[in-house]
UniProtKB/TrEMBL annotation:
<feature type="transmembrane region" description="Helical">
    <location>
        <begin position="66"/>
        <end position="85"/>
    </location>
</feature>
<feature type="transmembrane region" description="Helical">
    <location>
        <begin position="466"/>
        <end position="485"/>
    </location>
</feature>
<feature type="transmembrane region" description="Helical">
    <location>
        <begin position="33"/>
        <end position="54"/>
    </location>
</feature>
<feature type="transmembrane region" description="Helical">
    <location>
        <begin position="391"/>
        <end position="411"/>
    </location>
</feature>
<feature type="transmembrane region" description="Helical">
    <location>
        <begin position="146"/>
        <end position="173"/>
    </location>
</feature>
<feature type="transmembrane region" description="Helical">
    <location>
        <begin position="423"/>
        <end position="445"/>
    </location>
</feature>
<feature type="transmembrane region" description="Helical">
    <location>
        <begin position="299"/>
        <end position="328"/>
    </location>
</feature>
<keyword id="KW-0812">Transmembrane</keyword>
<feature type="transmembrane region" description="Helical">
    <location>
        <begin position="119"/>
        <end position="140"/>
    </location>
</feature>
<keyword id="KW-1133">Transmembrane helix</keyword>
<keyword id="KW-0472">Membrane</keyword>
<feature type="transmembrane region" description="Helical">
    <location>
        <begin position="491"/>
        <end position="509"/>
    </location>
</feature>
<protein>
    <recommendedName>
        <fullName>ABC transporter permease</fullName>
    </recommendedName>
</protein>
<feature type="transmembrane region" description="Helical">
    <location>
        <begin position="348"/>
        <end position="370"/>
    </location>
</feature>
<feature type="transmembrane region" description="Helical">
    <location>
        <begin position="237"/>
        <end position="258"/>
    </location>
</feature>
<feature type="transmembrane region" description="Helical">
    <location>
        <begin position="185"/>
        <end position="205"/>
    </location>
</feature>
Length: 517
């Protein structure tokens, strides 16, 4: 077991760039490591800040007993969502699989190696969040020692619940789609995400308000598994044992499948479609853009990791716009967000929602790097950079077309005050989509990574992806500030800025070339 722990420490240090930061002599590698660690630190700080906000908000409303159900709910849904986006496949097969099985460790440890690594990480996250919560409530919540013991139990149970639940849902979806002979990474990714989040979505739909306290207290795994009731958000010894029993049953099922049916899992989650998608494309001079776009679409659909990490915001924009369009809840049009320092009407909430969906994710930030070592085919072909850019940007635009069309319809029918206002909203959303598509491609052109062993290295951890995410966050923040200030010429100013940046990027791309340094 000591060998397993030492190896896990080494792998985690490598995943979080600590090894690269401490051992690498290459300045670019060290800068990438610093950038990645800075992103992780920023995420941790924001998460702790949100926990503190929840604690004081509940305390001010004399609802502190809801804190741990709400915190457990946020941890469960966030970690589960993150697990699905990261790819269930990573728990079964990875770039280190052959190396792991060659090590002098028991076979069951090799089969569960990636699961154990994820458990260690989630234990640390859950322990940090709950420890912060305990410190904030040390002198507030009654029966503190019981809360402390219950919290320690949650630290152990939550990561196990997250991993086993997401794995069982993912495997069920894969088996079902294989039975129906449906082989689509898009359908698999969306169906897995939807099934996992369905209780949360249903509770959000059925609640009488959009208050996070109502949504997360009821959607807590403690509540969903019958451990607590909504009226008494405390659980005793018997309920704790019940939760532990449910968790152990799920762990036994997952452990049995991993150890006894690992060959079946590896065959189910391993596919050569990515290589086929890269090698089978042929180009015709009669329709260059069509062939390039077809190749890009096949490459995109070949990876469930690529799809699941980039299809969420287009799907969210579509589902959210349809919810507005069919008026599934009167709160969508009547709700006003009121905090201590801002008041935002439903119109501006919808504008901000649309903006976040469009700018938060783009496929182009990793599209060049995702070519991998097959990039030499493009390097030796008589293709201009702009022709390649058009095909890769078109894919990102295509993903958002259904949702954006519905969003425009919602705005023009329900929120627009005039024809000019409608035209400005349409111009703003279209230019924002084109801008983030071009920015992602341009950043990836400047910071490519063609020598990768795991898709996650370019899709979520690549330098270009991180830089594009920072730029996206900055653009979203600027838009939010202008909307909150209710500036009269918000749309005009944003459209003008978008168009100017797009023109500059087009000029830069025309002068650039696809060369490997």
């Amino acid at each position: 077991m000591s060998k397993l722990i030492q190896l896990q420490k080494y792998i985690l240090a490598n995943d979080f760039q600590f090894s690269r930061l401490g051992l690498s002599t290459n300045q670019d590698d060290r800068k990438h490591a610093v950038l990645t660690l800075a992103g992780y630190c920023a995420a941790v700080v924001m998460a702790i800040g949100y926990i503190v906000y929840i604690a004081f908000d509940l305390y001010s409303n004399e609802e502190s007993t809801l804190f741990f159900p709400i915190l457990s709910s946020i941890l469960f849904w966030t970690l589960g969502f993150w697990t699905i986006l990261s790819g269930i496949k990573k728990m079964i097969v990875s770039s280190d699989t052959e190396f792991i099985f060659s090590l002098p460790i028991p076979l069951w440890q090799a089969k569960l190696f990636n699961v154990i690594k994820l458990l260690i990480l989630y234990f640390f996250i859950a322990a940090t969040a709950i420890f912060v919560g305990i410190l904030l409530h040390m002198f507030i919540i009654p029966n503190f020692w019981f809360v402390l013991l219950s919290s320690l139990l949650l630290v152990v149970i939550l990561p196990l619940l997250v991993i086993t639940t997401t794995f069982i849902i993912s495997l069920t979806v894969k088996i079902l789609l294989n039975f129906l002979t449906i082989h689509s990474n898009v359908i698999e990714a969306l169906l897995t995400i939807f099934l996992f989040l369905s209780p949360l979505l249903y509770i959000t739909y059925s609640t009488s308000s959009l208050d996070y306290k109502d949504i997360f207290s009821i959607s807590s795994p403690l509540y969903l598994f019958g451990i607590i009731s909504n009226s008494t958000p405390e659980f005793g010894f018997f309920n704790s044992v019940s939760l532990l029993t449910i968790t152990l049953v799920l762990v036994f099922i997952t452990g049995y499948i991993f150890t006894k049916r690992h060959a079946f899992l590896a065959a189910s989650y391993s596919t050569s479609s990515k290589r086929k998608a890269r090698d089978s494309s042929t180009f015709s001079s009669n329709s260059l853009f069509k062939n390039l776009f077809s190749k890009e679409l096949k490459l995109y659909l070949s990876s469930i990791t690529y799809v699941s990490n980039t299809v969420l915001t287009p799907a969210l924009l579509l589902m959210g716009s349809l919810a507005y369009l069919f008026n599934i809840s009167s709160l969508l049009y009547d709700y006003t967000l009121e905090l201590s320092f801002i008041t935002m009407s439903s119109k501006y909430i919808f504008i901000l929602f649309t903006t976040v969906c469009i700018l938060l994710t783009t496929t182009t930030s990793s599209s060049l790097s995702f070519e991998g070592q097959s990039i030499w085919i493009l390097l030796t072909s008589p293709l201009s950079l702009m022709e390649l850019a058009k095909a890769k940007m078109a894919l990102n635009v295509l993903l958002f077309v259904p949702g954006l069309a519905c969003a425009i319809l919602v705005y023009t029918q329900n929120f627009s005050s005039s024809l000019l206002d409608s035209l400005l909203f349409i111009s703003f959303t279209l230019t924002s989509l084109l801008l983030i598509s071009m920015l992602g491609f341009f950043v990836n052109l400047k910071f490519p990574n063609y020598n990768w062993s795991s898709e996650m290295e370019v899709i979520k951890q690549g330098k270009s992806t991180i830089i594009t995410a920072i730029i996206s966050s900055f653009l979203i923040s600027i838009t939010a500030i202008l909307i909150l200030l209710d500036f009269n010429f918000t749309f005009q100013l944003l459209v003008l800025v978008n168009v100017c940046i797009i023109i500059v990027l087009i000029y830069k791309l025309r002068e650039s070339s696809l060369l490997m340094e």
